[in-house]
Structure to design on (504 residues):
């Protein structure tokens, strides 16, 4: 069996098994979920090694050739994203098991596996309709995960999250319908060919469909002003679920990269680089909104949520230029921003549990394991703010260097450097309040003492960030090769449509 189907097939089967009453109410469900995630991680690593050779591989379901059948496509970008997803998933799942979060509801593990199914499918699919389908799978799973553990505030935020995403899904279908009506295809490689060959009379409809599609992806990426759903949603769900959700905004970023460069690139006529005229200012404003939120946040999880907005804005500043050097910088910064945001959420959960489920940024008595948690928080803060020696500093330097020749370089540099300053101040304020001003008096016992192993997943995420820093050379080389592969559209199109074009 082709390994490409494993990250989709395995979570689908295990999710179904975990729904069985005899499985989900026993330790077997937990073991199946952990085993599935390890299998996905192993297959993702093998696929990453395969993609690193530069070949673009395809898997045609039912042996139907593209553009008539469903096709999965593996290139450097999709391989990187599924590996990142599986690394994050194993850390979050381990944290949920070690802290007992998965026992606060009956359906955590099936929902978790369906979430992985949707994420991996979105990164591997080669056509727009199945991108929509996998979007819906991951969103439906995220609705359940968001409400896991219950609570009135969580339910209130969940309703808003559902409504916003239903609007996004409706717009997605309208955009797909427009583009299919004009091009007669939903396969992205085939659509790229047909958009390039479209008559001038079809250009307005193609451009309208392109803009609407990118707006939907911008909503998923929480790009200002479409970001308002994210802070409350991420702050009110459980922190480990919010850590997994750090990859959800990157699904939007991935889709913007994939669809814009492949379908609406330089050969797309009037629809060429559809979001280029509005995405940069929106990304700059997202940096400001995110890191001002970090500075003003009164709760640790809300601070982490605004950090996700700010770091995604930084990432989209580079993406919005749609130039190879800027995309290289973005692809290095993307895994860093995902892992750093997830790390801060896991640390927030550990601190909250040590303070008797109190995550408000307020003074209090000393709490258990304060020294180790202070060290973890400091490292997470360094990562999120983008300070040396961690990979965020390298990523921001790459973005600044890639934008130095841009006409809006002053605004870009002011936004990134100013956002970094606000993040430093906001995170320093939070750390001072939690650890310095709380260091007086007697340590108070908490209702639930953390296991010794509960911090292991957070330390694991930090080690991944450290590895990304130490291996910055190979990582930037991979990012550069991925960027070049993205812009060499003919290789992707030939890999997907080669069998159809040859008539075999």
């Amino acid at each position: 069996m082709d390994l490409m189907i494993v990250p989709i097939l395995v979570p689908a089967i295990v999710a179904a098994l975990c729904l069985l009453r005899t499985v989900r109410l026993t330790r077997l469900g937990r073991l199946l979920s952990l085993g599935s995630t390890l299998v996905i991680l192993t297959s993702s690593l093998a696929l990453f090694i395969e993609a690193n050779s530069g070949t673009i591989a395809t898997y045609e379901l039912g042996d139907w050739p593209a553009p008539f059948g469903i096709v999965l496509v593996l290139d450097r970008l999709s391989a990187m994203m599924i590996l990142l997803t599986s690394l994050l998933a194993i850390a979050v799942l381990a944290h949920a098991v070690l802290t007992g979060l998965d026992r606060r509801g009956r359906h955590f593990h099936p929902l978790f596996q369906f979430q992985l199914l949707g994420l991996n499918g979105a990164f591997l699919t080669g056509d727009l309709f199945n991108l929509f389908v996998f979007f819906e799978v991951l969103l439906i799973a995220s609705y359940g995960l968001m409400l896991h553990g219950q609570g009135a505030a969580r339910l209130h935020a969940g309703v808003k999250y559902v409504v916003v995403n239903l609007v996004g899904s409706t717009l997605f279908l309208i955009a797909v319908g427009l583009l299919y009506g004009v091009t007669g295809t939903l396969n992205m490689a085939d659509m790229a060919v047909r958009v390039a060959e479209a008559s001038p009379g079809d250009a307005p409809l193609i451009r309208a469909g392109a803009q609407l599609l990118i707006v939907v992806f911008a909503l998923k990426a929480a790009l200002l002003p479409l970001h308002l759903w994210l802070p409350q949603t991420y702050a009110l769900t459980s922190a480990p679920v919010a850590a997994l959700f750090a990859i959800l905004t990157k699904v939007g970023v991935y889709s913007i990269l994939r669809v814009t460069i492949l379908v609406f690139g330089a050969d797309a006529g009037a629809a060429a680089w559809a979001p280029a005229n509005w995405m940069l200012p929106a990304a700059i404003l997202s940096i400001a909104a995110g890191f001002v939120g970090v500075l003003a946040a009164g709760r640790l999880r809300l601070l982490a949520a605004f950090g996700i907005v700010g770091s995604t804005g930084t990432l989209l500043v580079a993406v919005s230029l749609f130039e190879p050097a800027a995309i290289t910088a973005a692809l290095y910064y993307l895994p860093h921003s995902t892992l750093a945001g997830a790390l801060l959420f896991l640390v927030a959960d550990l601190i909250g549990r040590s303070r008797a489920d109190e995550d408000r940024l307020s003074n209090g008595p000393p709490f258990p394991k304060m020294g180790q948690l202070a060290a973890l928080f400091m490292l997470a803060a360094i990562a999120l703010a983008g300070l040396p020696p961690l990979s965020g500093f390298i990523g921001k330097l790459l973005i600044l260097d890639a934008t130095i020749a841009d006409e809006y370089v002053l605004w870009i540099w002011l936004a990134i450097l100013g956002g970094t300053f606000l993040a430093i101040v906001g995170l320093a304020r939070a750390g001072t309040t939690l650890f310095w001003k709380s260091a007086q008096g007697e340590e108070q016992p908490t209702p639930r003492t953390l296991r010794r192993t509960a911090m292991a997943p957070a330390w694991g995420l930090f080690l991944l960030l450290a590895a990304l820093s130490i291996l910055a050379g190979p990582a930037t080389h991979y990012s550069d090769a991925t960027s070049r592969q993205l812009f060499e559209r003919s290789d992707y199109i030939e890999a997907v449509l080669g069998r159809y074009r040859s008539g075999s």
About this structure: Residues 3-496 form one domain.
